[in-house]
Design brief:
Beta-Lactamase, 4 domains, single chain, Helicase, Ruva Protein, domain 3, elongated, alpha/beta, 18 helices, five-stranded antiparallel β-sheet, Rossmann fold
């Protein structure tokens, strides 16, 4: 390409394409330094730029070379003096020939240009509001016969610098919010350790448990509930997040106002928008009446958004606006509705991973993750299983006019189960067992898992993880729920010194335990399911005493 026809960004279509590419880079990346390098690469391509750089002021107000394209072979190879002047005055520099500018002349020697070439230097301020926070500079090499047209280039660089300024401001706000979040979380955890509440806690009566993990949850709930801050409940499905959300509402000054719950995963994006924000009459087919959304219904109270990690990226932006501004418009309407709502959200997703993949907005993540409370899985607090099982059985008795009770071996059997579905699965197990029990006591042999009839175990194909040492079940409680495939045959431990065959040892253990498989399993150091397989293997029929 002849030097006299060096392309500029004066062509409107050319400018729009490059600005579009730059906006995509700055809007999609959480790595600001890499995004700035990519922006400079685009400028190099579209503006025939020789070298370019982005300089940003650090926390101490000193300019730092944050990103560059082209090589600056040594520290004095970049004109910091000229750039500092641009930052200090917010006035751009346009030097047709760097050799003619005193602040740039010393740098020309490092450029390695030909005798018939000159180098131009353009530098514009990067601003945040009315304050300059850095500068964007570009160097371009020209032949002596080239025409110097910088008006469009300068206007283009101002637009790019403005986008960079907005991206820098957003990144710094996110970083500041993150530091605030970390400090607040550390403070709450410290206070939770120092103040262990007496159980049961008023407002938390329905959240059963006295394990260390649940005591920590109770402390965090009591500390956070009286405030207005957003709480994010995290944990596996079935751990009781909605119960804790209701407890936070009951313990807050908003307890006399509505508590409104929405499952975000159960609705499509359009239905979720109508459900949360409401709609005007005629907004869509079937909208025959004006309808208030859940935000309006929760005005003055608490809105619980369950499975918030499942909402679409497009709807995340709409939700963020409501959380930031406290206002929205109904679907099909133009009137702004203002609300005062305390948000409690819940998710079982790894939101940090979702943010890193671009599936969840970072700004929304920091908006909802103010006070995170992790709900422990049931396997992490197996000591609470007898309390929970008795609680569910008492409710079953009241609802069905029964008077059932657990025997000790039944509670031990339940305590040894894995329960991948957590508290919800335990409640299901208790109700199913109670329904099918004929007598007044639920015994170990009445449990479906002790008879290899626990159908839910076929859903879980992975081996159960080891329990944390501090919350492990007692050694006498065997793990009951096993993978759907039969475990490897294990040699039967001999309860005495007799030289008995495997079949004889099995019969002897069953007779000593009254033909209760759970008890025989403890005698032999096996699981009830392994006992079941062994009985089938040796053709031993169960006896009912």
């Amino acid at each position: 390409m002849p030097r006299c026809e060096m392309p500029t960004v004066s062509d409107p279509a050319h400018s729009l394409v490059s600005l579009y590419e730059i906006s995509k880079l700055l809007g999609a990346s959480l790595n600001l330094d890499q995004a700035l390098r990519d922006v400079l690469n685009i400028l190099s391509s579209y503006m025939q730029m020789g070298r370019g750089a982005v300089v940003l002021l650090d926390a101490a107000g000193k300019p730092q070379l944050t990103a560059q394209a082209g090589a600056f072979r040594k520290a004095d190879g970049y004109p910091f003096a000229a750039v500092q002047k641009v930052i200090a005055t917010s006035i751009p520099i346009v030097a047709v020939d760097m050799a003619d500018e005193p602040l740039l002349a010393d740098v020309v020697a490092t450029l390695g240009t030909l005798d018939d070439e000159s180098v131009s230097f353009l530098c514009v301020p990067i601003k945040s509001g009315d304050r300059s926070i850095g500068a964007l500079s570009v160097e371009r090499t020209w032949g002596n016969d080239a025409r110097h047209v910088f008006e469009h280039d300068l206007r283009f660089l101002f637009m790019v610098a403005n986008m960079i300024g907005q991206a820098v401001l957003l990144q710094r706000r996110i970083a500041a919010d993150r530091q605030t979040l970390i400090a607040e979380n550390a403070r709450l955890q410290k206070m939770a350790k120092e103040s262990k509440p007496e159980l049961p806690v008023h407002g938390l009566e329905d959240v059963v448990g006295n394990s260390p993990a649940m005591v920590s949850v109770f402390s965090q709930v009591q500390q956070a509930a009286p405030t207005r801050v957003t709480v994010l409940l995290r944990g596996e499905s079935g751990t009781g997040k909605e119960l804790v959300a209701r407890a936070i509402h009951m313990l807050s000054p908003r307890s006399k106002k509505p508590f409104v719950s929405v499952n975000c995963a159960a609705l499509s994006e359009s239905l979720l928008e109508s459900e949360l924000f409401g709609h005007e009459k005629g907004a869509f087919t079937g909208a025959t009446l004006e309808r208030k959304g859940r935000f309006e219904l929760a005005h003055g109270g608490t809105l619980f958004l369950d499975e918030i990690g499942e909402i679409s990226p497009a709807f995340q932006a709409k939700l963020l606006r409501v959380l930031q501004e406290g206002e929205f418009e109904r679907v099909g309407g133009s009137k702004t509705v203002k609300v005062d709502v305390r948000l409690v959200a819940a998710t079982n997703r790894d939101l940090e991973q979702a943010v890193s993949k671009g599936e969840f907005r970072a700004d929304l993540y920091y908006r909802i993750n103010v006070v995170p409370i992790r709900m422990p899985a049931l396997r992490e607090r197996s000591g609470d299983i007898p309390l929970l099982a008795s609680h569910f059985l008492a409710r079953f008795n009241e609802e069905n006019n029964r008077h059932l009770d657990f025997t000790d071996d039944a509670l031990l059997g339940l305590q040894g189960c894995y329960f991948p579905g957590n508290v919800r699965e335990l409640e299901n197990c208790v109700c199913r067992t109670a329904t099918m029990t004929r007598g007044e006591f639920i015994r170990g042999e009445d449990l479906f898992c002790s008879r290899n009839a626990c159908l839910s175990s076929s859903l879980w194909h992975a081996e159960q993880p080891a329990r944390p040492a501090e919350t492990a079940a007692p050694a006498v409680a065997p793990p009951v729920v096993m993978p759907s495939a039969p475990p490897p045959a294990a040699p039967l431990a001999t309860p005495s010194g007799d030289d008995l065959s495997e079949r004889e040892r099995l019969i002897q253990a069953m007779e000593k335990s009254g033909w209760v498989q759970a008890k025989a399993a403890r005698l032999l150091g096996l699981t009830p399911r392994q006992i079941g397989y062994a009985l089938q293997k040796h053709g031993i029929e169960l006896r009912h005493l």
